[in-house]
Amino acid sequence: MKAFKKVLIWIAILPFVLVISCKDNDPAPANDNFTVLTDYMVANSMDLGDVVSGWITPPPASEADVASFVATYYIMDIRSASDYAAGHIEGAVNSTLGTIVADATQATKPILVVCYTGQSAAHATVALRLSGHPDAKVLMWGMSGWRSDLAGSWLGNSGDNGNIGVGNSNWVTTSTADPQAFDAPTWTTTSTDPAEMLAERVAYMTSDGFKGVASADVLANPSNYFINNFWDAASVEKYGHIATSFRINPLTITNGEIRNLDPTKTIVTYCWTGQTSSMITAYLTVLGYNAKSLKFGANSMIYSALEAHKFVQPTVDLPVVTD
User: Fold this and answer.
1) What is the pLDDT of residue 5?
2) Rounded-to-integer distance, Cα 311 and Cα 132, Å
3) Torsion of CA 73, 270, 42, 189, to 10 degrees
4) Which of 165, 193, 226, 275 could be 118's S-S partner, Cβ–Cβ 3.0 to 4.6 Å?
5) d(CA 38, CA 25)
6) Contact 120, 278 (CB under 8 A)
7) How many CA atoms lie within 13 A of 306 on its CB side?
């Protein structure tokens, strides 16, 4: 009889034992992941304001400055292998957006990420800054700012080619939309440990490639997107903005502005050059938003009207080496 009672007791408590023993292996509930991750990021100085701070550096002003510039950084060039071989900054190593976090384990100096225009490198720099390299930086304008013969991408999306917003009915001077609060995005993860969650989300972001959208597509159909103009208020008043845009800046976890983004929409961020917006897009992707960066920013829409933040073809061609 006593043996029988023991069996009944074990039958009663077995489900609870199984739940406890399996807890560490179960995915975290989707609705809790955003809070767990963002709390961890804020506690470890990885709010957006921390990540998007001091993240860009211009190329040297002259060839005489190149040696000291190169000596300062561990340079990671994420262009294609063929373009890297055709001409790269001396000492640069070839990597990719998808492998840059793993490749960065070889770095012994602050990392400088190089791409074609500074936009893909911004994605990569966010990945590095969230993965133990908080001083990683982007080479401003990418290789387009290093040599005039490598500036094709920027030249094709600025100057005379960057005025599609001028006179466009969807470039307006009305007030930006009033922000409102939304639910957080939901996603699943294989871990309940926030550091592991972050590593998993960074890996997802980098493996999914650069997330950009052409300005022509957004101007043609602004209502298809949740558009955030990442300018100060005075600049919006001076230049106007894309119709239906919000202006959510600052955009932090700590003060709750991040919850003014609609997780059910494709969130398009735009800035002056597409470099800052690429940083923000990468960060939002890590948090679970469906985010895209408006490529080349205002330079691709109202270039002739801009008084600053404009790409200009380099007048000094800095040296490269070939493989």
Assistant:
1) 39
2) 31
3) -100
4) 275
5) 21
6) yes
7) 22
Given a contact cutoff of 8 angstroms between Cβ atoms, the answer to whether 201 and 283 are in contact is: no
Which amino acid, 128? Answer: L
CA distance 77 to 89: 8
Mean pLDDT to the nearest integer, 41-59: 98
Q: Is beta strand 291-294 parallel, antiparallel or unpaired with respect to 212-213?
A: parallel
Please list the residues that pair with 74 across neighbouring strands: 111
Identify the residue whose tokens are 């013969």. 149
In terms of C-beta density within 10 A (0-12 exposed, 13-18 middle, 19 or more buried), how is residue 7 classed? exposed
242 Cβ contact list (under 8 Å, min separation 6): 165, 170, 171, 172, 218, 219, 222, 227, 229, 270, 301
Residue 202, token pair as written in the block: 């960074």
Query: Are 80 and 73 in contact, with CB atoms under 8 Å apart?
Result: no
Does residue 53 register a pLDDT over 80?
A: yes
Could you tell me the two tokens for 207?
């493996």
CA distance 264 to 127: 24
Distance CA 167, CA 183 (A): 36
Say how many residues make up the chain.
323
C-alpha distances in angstroms, 49 versus 54, 158, 257, 290, 291?
Answer: 10, 28, 12, 20, 18
Task: With CA atoms as reference, report the closest residue to 157 among 303, 275, 278.
Answer: 303
Q: Per-residue pLDDT tens for 232-248?
A: 999 999 999 999 999 99
Cα(36)–Cα(33) distance, integer angstroms: 5
